[in-house]
Design a protein that fits this description.
250 residues; alpha+beta; Sulfite Oxidase, Chain A, domain 2; 2 domains; 5-stranded mixed β-sheet; 5-stranded antiparallel β-sheet; 6 helices; 12 strands; 27% helix; 24% strand
């Protein structure tokens, strides 16, 4: 087929240039308008209402797609970091008296159990080596050991409570707290963790007991659990109140 050369006139070039400038101007104007409109919107737990609506919609979608059969990738023990990063110290009071610690489990109003670390360790142990991801942008392969939350639920007859929607966890000093959807906390890789690299948790990693939940970002892995309770509605969540996503799923 013979090549046909198409000649573009000066008028066509000028018209296309004008259209491009007009389109760019309208785009920038639209962006500025939307930005100014957003700044005038009220806040909902630290986030502007339109942004919070988007986050809530994302949560509904991810909840609908969630499957307990979808497992986080695991690694060999040799791949685990020996020096484990600490993703924050909120709720970690270094004057904490570990000898007086017991997990406060609120099964329902007026029904609270106080559980020792030895009682938790008596349950079947599970190890998980996975890529811990922090919302600050870093990740690290880490090795943790403890009790599956699902085994904990069976031991303390929490099947009914665990199905009502959410689980709340607080540090002993109540300075840090998270709320987690029941599907995620019952995931087979979620553990109540008392070991790191085969040794008792260091104080700065939440000794004597912390949450490890591989399907969530690090902000949900509450260190030094003081209280666990159940709720049909979203429990308070520290970073949600600062404007972050409540779900924080991976």
């Amino acid at each position: 087929m013979p090549f046909t050369q198409q000649i573009v006139s000066t008028k066509q070039i000028r018209n296309k240039t004008i259209i491009s400038f007009i389109s760019f101007f309208l785009f920038i104007t639209g962006c500025v308008f939307i930005w100014k409109w957003l700044q005038k919107q009220p806040e909902n737990n630290g986030a502007l209402v339109p942004l919070r609506s988007v986050l809530n919609t994302n949560e509904k979608i991810f909840n609908a797609l969630f499957s307990s059969n979808r497992l986080t990738k695991t690694f060999a023990e040799k791949d685990a970091a020996k020096k484990v990063r600490v993703n924050g110290n909120l709720g970690i009071n270094y004057n904490f008296d570990a000898a007086k610690w017991k997990l406060q489990l609120i099964r329902k109003p007026g029904d609270t159990l106080y559980i020792s670390l030895d009682e938790i360790k008596a349950l079947p142990k599970t190890d998980i080596i996975f890529d811990f991801k922090c919302i600050e942008g870093w990740s690290q392969v880490t090795h943790w050991g403890g009790v599956k939350f699902s085994d904990f639920v069976k031991k303390y007859s929490l099947d009914e409570q665990s199905r009502i929607g959410y689980v709340g966890l607080h540090t002993p000093d109540n300075q840090y707290y998270v709320g987690i959807d029941s599907k995620s906390i019952l995931h087979p890789q979620t553990i109540l963790c008392y070991e790191m690299n085969g040794q008792p948790l260091p104080m700065n990693q939440g000794y004597p007991l912390r949450l490890i939940i591989p399907v969530k970002y690090g902000v949900k892995h509450l260190k030094r659990i003081g209280t666990i309770f159940f709720s049909a509605n979203r429990p308070p969540d520290y970073w949600y109140e600062q404007g972050y996503d409540y779900y924080c799923g991976l």
